[in-house]
Amino acid sequence: VPLEAAMLQPLPMEELFSAPANQYVLPILGETPSGEPPDPKKCSPREYLEFYIFPVLLPGLAALLHEAEKEKCFEGKRTKFIPSDFLTEWLYNKNPKRKDESFTELFSIPFVKDWLKDRPRPPTPLSVLLSEEEASILIQSFWRGYRVRCDSEIQELRQWQKKLREERHITEVVKKFWTKQEAK
């Protein structure tokens, strides 16, 4: 079933409005209802949704679903795709008031900058950022390094290097070297 066709199905809105739900079929994506737009401060919730919210939001939701499909979000794995970020960026850039302005990335949007100043995000975990292949390479390289460091000959070499560093005061020699370099 195409995405647009799925979006045009009636919504169960009995709880929100007194009229039967079958009267509330969503408009075609991007199309505003015919007739003159009602006064946004005096119209009913239904009219407000049909004239002011759905014509803007539905194309954004359709774009969100297409992007989520591209990012393979429906495969059951964790992804780095954040739907609210995508929708915020999409709605901001498709705003008719910004018609002639260039594309703005999410973190360059003024209200997003202000929001993140007060509420910084935690860093994204590596498990989300790395592909399975990249993660397996990291794990394998760590394991190989660990196994090599356990080897008796390597242990002996490391002990010898440690002793050499202590006898020759290598850390102080390096500090003096960098002090001279910074003075130049």
TrEMBL record:
InterPro entries named in the record: IQ_motif_EF-hand-BS, IQCK
Pfam families reported for this sequence: IQ
Protein name (Swiss-Prot/TrEMBL): IQCK protein
Lineage, uppermost ranks: Eukaryota, Metazoa, Chordata, Craniata, Vertebrata
Gene: Iqck
